[in-house]
Specification:
164 residues; alpha+beta; Immunoglobulin-like; five-stranded mixed beta sheet; globular; Laccase-8
Amino acid sequence: MTSKSTKVKKLKFNSTVEMVLQNTASLGVESHPMHLHGFDFHVLAQGFGNYDPINDPKKFNLVNPQARNTIVVPAGGWIVVRFQANNPGVWLMNCHMDIHVPWGLSMAFAVENMPTPSTMLPPPLGDLPKSLAPNLLEMIVRSSTLVLACFTHMVMKSLLSARI
């Protein structure tokens, strides 16, 4: 079951991530331009109506799928995207229509470090206390969750005050 909260999804380095982006809510009839920071993804399939996990995977383009970092999820439809989590750090995926962010159309991924310099975040700055360095990724995840929640609150507040 999907949790209705602001959280960061932790990903193993080099794991394959596949997502179905569904846009069949009856509350609004709008398309959503979804953008993934830090990665390109492959568009495996798209369609209208509800995604069918039994039949729709048969339609996946696994030979030459489009590589993109932004895709419009059409009103009344769905998109399946896949990417390789090979860029360590915390990355945001969000709708590029700012008003949709407080509605929950954003998420963050934290990709873990690997042991080689090319597969890890740069080391902390020299003035960072040594006791914080071992937990740096966990701190980034926590602060990113807080920043995402604060940003959502700030956007919502400005939208509400603009209507007065």
